[in-house]
Amino acid sequence: MTDTSFVALACGLIIGLGAIGACIGIAIMGGKYLEASARQPELMNTLQTKMFLLAGLIDAAFLIGVGIAMLFAFASPFKAMVVGA
Question: Quick one: 8-76 is in which CATH superfamily?
């Protein structure tokens, strides 16, 4: 395997595992929101605001991982180290 194939494999793992983690996190959070709003319907608006805030933070963590993977895929910051060695 070449260095390029390792970079492609790493990018795939970063994006894939990040997507799985974000999906699981949002699914658990959505389930807990439905549970909490069923128990106390008067707090539904407050809980919904907090749920959307957390959903944005979970997606932001995933998108940061995608950005790092794209940096490795297209900018190749380690290529200079490999070529210089």
Answer: F1F0 ATP synthase subunit C (1.20.20.10)
